[in-house]
Design a protein that fits this description.
The protein is α+β, with helices and mostly antiparallel strands. It has helices at residues 2-24, 29-46, 48-55, 107-116; strands at residues 63-64, 67-68, 70-73, 81-84, 119-127, 134-144, 147-154. Helix content is 38%, strand content 26%. The strands form two sheets. The chain has a five-stranded antiparallel beta sheet with strand order 4-3-7-6-5, sandwiched between helices. Residues 4-24 have low confidence and may be disordered.
Amino acid sequence: MRKFTTLILGLLGLFSMVAVAAADASHSPEQVKAFVVKAADYLKSQGKEKALADFSDPKGAFVDGDLYLVVLDATDGKLTMLAHGVNKGLIGKPQIDVKDAEGRAFNQDTVAALSKDSEFWITYLWPNPATKKIARKKTYFTRVGDVIIGAGTYE
């Protein structure tokens, strides 16, 4: 019986470590794109006001560990933040000159990409909210009317 109990406790410990590792793992590009598509569909069906509020709820359905949404005004050239899943303090602020950890104003690349395509990927260095470390982040954006919705995966 003692060996059985030791085995069970060992397995529980192993499962706990796997669960913690899985929680720290970033999402695949396919998961990120599906997440953004889901948000775009939600915006279209629920309307802008409700969707933006829901996208900015850190405990809501549109935040999953290090996966969260950003929604930017695509009409003003300044990329004003309309919703942010983990930092409400950015809402209402222009993002065009925000720099990544290497000093690159990566949102200028976003504006350039937006002028050519309605969906695209941008890569930059950004703090991962789950690990609190700077990491390479690849963000997928799609245009929905006058906004772009994005989410990213950390490498």
